[in-house]
Amino acid sequence: MSAAVAEPMKRSPSYAVYTRLAPRVVDWPVLVGKVAELKQQDSDWTSEVAAIKAPVLLVFADADAVRPAHAREFFAPFYGGPGAVTDLLRPLVRAEHGANPLADTHIEVI
């Protein structure tokens, strides 16, 4: 992927959302170029994410590129893993997840 695909991507759902939300729609190729650059970098943040101590909001969507199994793997360190419980025998949760029936992808949530 590169900024060169910005024009054909104007037929995508992502572009439709972008046109509704972006302050400068003409910057679409800039965004596509920056995303292309990011995709060239290593994005395995597993150890960094597991070290976060603050409350976390994880955003995944049904029609997204992220597989549900991967979303569960990402959620697991915040959950405490299988069998992690508090003194009240409730799961030890430092993150929450939920469903948004109005969004199909993470782009619409962002």
Task: Give descriptors for this structure.
4% strand; 110 residues; two-stranded parallel sheet; globular; 2 strands; mainly alpha
Textual characterization of the structure:
It is a single chain. With 110 residues, the protein is mainly α. Helix content is 38%, strand content 4%. The protein has helices at 13-21, 28-39, 46-50, 68-79, 106-109; strands spanning 56-57, 95-96. β1 (56-57), α4 and β2 form a beta-alpha-beta unit. The longest helix is centred in the N-terminal third of the chain and has 12 residues, at 28-39. It is globular, with a radius of gyration of 17 Å. The relative contact order is 0.15. The model is unreliable at 85-89 (pLDDT under 50).
